[in-house]
Amino acid sequence: MNRSLTYVDDIFAYFVAHEIIEHDDIEPRSVAECQNGADWPKWKDAIQVELDSLTKRQVFGLVVLTPLSVKPIGHKWVFVRKRNEKNEVLRYKVRLVAQGFSQRPEIDYEETYSLIMDVITFRYLVSLVVSEKIDM
User: Fold this and answer.
1) What distance in Å separates the CA atoms of residue 121 and residue 136, rounded to the nearest whole number?
2) Cα→Cα distances 28→4, 31, 53, 74, 85, Å
3) What Cα–Cα distance (Å) separates residue 22 from each residue in 11, 19, 27, 122?
4) Residue 26, CB half-sphere, CA atoms under 13 Å: how many?
5) How many C-beta atoms lie closer than 10 Å to residue 46's C-beta?
6) Does the pLDDT at position 105 exceed 80?
7) How many whole angstroms separate alpha carbon 82 and alpha carbon 92?
8) pTM, 2 dp
């Protein structure tokens, strides 16, 4: 496809963009944005549900003093409105996520663990069982 031959109607594009901006509920990007919205009580409840879940799973531990040269891993709140097919808000969902991209191997962690097996590994194991005629 040659993009130089593509014609975009500027008026149509303007009205589409205006419609999206005017009627789209943009998800908040911070707790402060949530607090300024009319649905703050619902966001607050969702935050509490997430904190209760993390506490129940014993995610939090004692805070240990670290040297000044050690930079702790950051975190971020992620806010999502779950909707049905009619675009009505069903529930408010909040997640507290670690910004693990700032971690350095052998410095911030020594090993990783993944509970999930990917498809390639599964296929390899199945082919190994078949080729070696292993009884399962």
Assistant:
1) 17
2) 37, 8, 21, 19, 21
3) 16, 5, 14, 47
4) 8
5) 21
6) no
7) 6
8) 0.59
